[in-house]
Amino acid sequence: MRQRTLGGTGVHVTPICLGAMMFGAWGETDHDAAIRIVHRALEAGVNFIDTADVYSRGESEEVVGKALSDGRRENVVLATKFHGTMGDDPNQSGNSRRWIMREVEASLRRLQTDWIDLYQVHRWDPWTDHDETLSALSDLVTQGKVRYVGSSTYPAAQIVKAQWIASDRGHRRFVCEQPPYSILARAVEADVLPTCREFGMGVIAWSPLAGGWLSGRWRKGSDQLTSRRSAMIPQRYDLSLPANQAKLEAADALAQLADESGISLIHMALAFVIRHPAVTAAIIGPRTIEHLDSQLGAADVQLDTAVLDRIDEIVAPGSTINPTDAGWTNPALEAAARRS
After folding, report:
1. Tens of pLDDT along 43-71?
2. Strand 4-5, strand 12-13: pairing
3. Residue 21: Cβ-neighbour burial (10 angstroms; 0-12, 13-18, 19+)
4. Residue ranges in the chain modelled with pLDDT below 50
5. Are 16 and 295 in contact, with CB atoms under 8 Å apart?
6. Contacts (Cβ under 8 Å, ≥6 apart) of 31
7. Residue 117 backbone dihedrals phi, psi, to 5 degrees
8. CA dihedral for 185, 187, 188, 190, sign (positive or negative)
9. How many Cβ atoms sit within 10 Å of the Cβ of residue 322?
10. Confidence at residue 168, expressed as pLDDT on a 0 to 100 scale
11. Model's pTM, two decimal places?
12. In sequence order, which residues have a C-beta less than 8 Å from that of residue 216 and are 6 or more positions away?
C-alpha cells in the first residue's frame, strides 16, 4: 500500500487509517476478535491506527494497546484523542491543561506505550483558550510523551486561529485536522480542506462511509434500513426526517453508479475521499474482519472523470445533505446567540 506524508511532518502513513472506535462496548466486545482485526490490517500494509480515550470509555485504547504489545508498536503511527467526557466530574473532559496532563497519562497506560505519535483535540472547546490547550500540548511534545499534535472537527475559523496563536506564542502547531468527510457530507470542501492546504496540514477524514450510509446497505425499498448506530444517533438515521430521506435517495443513486462502474459502493466512497488533494488518509472503522476486507482494496481504486462528474450531480460539491453529519453545530447560529 502506497504511503503519503502527514502534512509537513515527514512521517509516512498509509491512505487507509484503521479506526478503532468499534473496539469495545460500542462494537466488537470480544477483545481477541478486535485484536485479529488490527493484526489483519497491519499484515495488509496499514501502518496508521486512530483511536480516542472516549471510545467505550478507554476500552478501545486498551484493545489497541494489547494488539501492539507483541512488538508491533515500533512500526505503527499511533494516534489518539482527548476531549470527550470520561467521568462524572465536569473536569474529566475538555481541553484544559489540567485535563490534558491527567488524561495523556491514562491514554499512555491503556495503550501500553511510552509515546503517542499523534495526539489530537477531539473537538474545539469554546470555553478553553487555544493558548491554554496548545501550551499544554507543546509541553507534552517537549517531554517526549507526544510526537505531534492535531485537531479534529474544528471549523475553519478555529483552525486559522489556532495556527496564528501557535505562531504568535511559540507553541507547537496542529500538523493535521480530522474532519468528517464523505460523498454525503462534503461541506468541508468549501473551507476546512482549503484551509488545511493553506497551512500545510494533513487531513485524516473520519466517517468516509457516512456512518454506514455508503456501505451498500441503505437502498430504496430495503426492509432492513437500520444499523447499530441508528439507535445511538437517530437524527442521522431516522427516515421520518426529510434530510435523511434525501440521504437515502442519494445513497441509492450512488449505489447504482457504483454498480454501473463495476466497483463496490464502499470502494467508490473511500476512493472519492482519498483522492482529494488535501486528504492524507481516510479512517475506516470495521467491526469485523469481513468489514475490514471489504474496505482495504479502496486504496488502489482510481475514479475517472465521468464517475466524479456523476457524483457531483448526485451531491453537489461543498454540500452536506443532513447538517447534523457536519460533526458540530455552530454556536453562533443557535437561538441564544441570534436573539440575545
Report:
1. 999 999 999 999 999 999 999 999 999 99
2. antiparallel
3. buried
4. none
5. yes
6. 23, 62, 63, 66
7. -65, -45
8. positive
9. 20
10. 98
11. 0.94
12. 255, 258, 264, 265, 266
Compute the distance between CA of residue 121 and CA of residue 123 in angstroms, rounded to an integer: 6
Residue 279 cell numbers, joined: 486528504
Model pLDDT, residue 227:
59
What pLDDT, on a 0 to 100 scale, did the predictor assign at position 230?
62
Dihedral of the CA atoms 287, 55, 207, 159 (nearest 10)?
Answer: -160
User: What stretches of the chain adopt beta strand conformation (E)?
Assistant: 4-5, 12-13, 16-19, 48-50, 77-82, 116-121, 146-152, 174-178, 202-205, 281-284
Could you give all domains of the chain from N- to C-terminal order, each with its CATH number?
4-339 (3.20.20.100)
- Please state, in angstroms and rounded to a whole number, the distance separating the CA atoms of residues 107 and 124: 20
In the chain, the amino acid numbered 80 is T
Residues designated catalytic: 55
Pull the grid cell for residue 241. 426526517
- Cα separation, 170 vs 164, in Å, equals 10
